[in-house]
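Sample 3 of the quickstart, ligand S-adenosylmethionine:
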Amino acid sequence: MADEWQVPTTTDSGIPGDPTTDWAPTGIDVDKPSAARVYDAILGGKDNFAVDRAIADRVLTVMPNARTGAMLNRAILERGVRYLAGRGVDQFLDLGSGLPTVRNTHEVAQETNPQARVAYVDHDPIVVAHGRALLADDDRTRVVTADVREPHKVLTHPDVVQLLDFTRPVGLLLVAVLHHLADADEPARLVREYRDALAPGSFLFITHFSDSTPEGRELEKVFLATLGSGRFRSRATVEDFFTGTDLVEPGVVFLPRWRPDRPVTDEAAYAGLGMIGGIGRLPDRVDEMRSSGA
Ligand code: SAM
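Result:
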């Protein structure tokens, strides 16, 4: 397992990160926490403010191994993207992409296929500023400011349609973002709208907080009280997000059990963590005809 934990967490965006707020893009309220920056703080990154670190501290009090959980999420992101690139996917729509760290989607995908294209989408202006600084010279990536709750705007955004060809398979990533949507946002409907815009043979890749542990249920209260988002949902609910796709083995599972690079041995380090995820494939037309008996 050891290598999987070694996720360095400093960014290389060219924007100085330090405990001050000097580097914040204009218009940012440095007293208002953001999911992207709290996640960065939990990972041990430096692109966060005091208000974000205070929440990260509370999270680590309730769940001392939360950083392990965040790293498991980054690790499955890498395994999943590698899996998709290995299945021939050469274009990715990464929704709620977060602050650039290491082993970002385009870096992993382009190891398999240097021509792979990635559109990153996030609503956090700091994510977008860092992403653009990092990717300024890369014409196969774009960083787009948009709200994932507006699929039509995302899917018709000029930068997205310029980069991605929706008549061909796309890898759609919703990694650690759907839990930041409230039930009232109807995440299942949103996923369906994205899925319906994808060509046969596309893939849906989701990770999500799970309500399976007492620590997770406690953490939900902390997230909702401080950040205002962070819903821990059941496995059945997360499996429902994959409706209309064929789940890739082993299905929706605790993150380190999804196609691990090496046997999972360090169960003690995972105690209390509840993060699940998986990948589903949209059937292509031949498959559909076979399963319907046509
Ligand atoms: N996907 C990355 C990963 O798994 O490492 C980052 C996950 S981070 C926990 C969640 C990201 O989702 C944050 O960057 C946050 O800004 C973004 N996010 C949350 N709600 C969003 C929304 N409604 N629209 C766009 N991005 C959103």
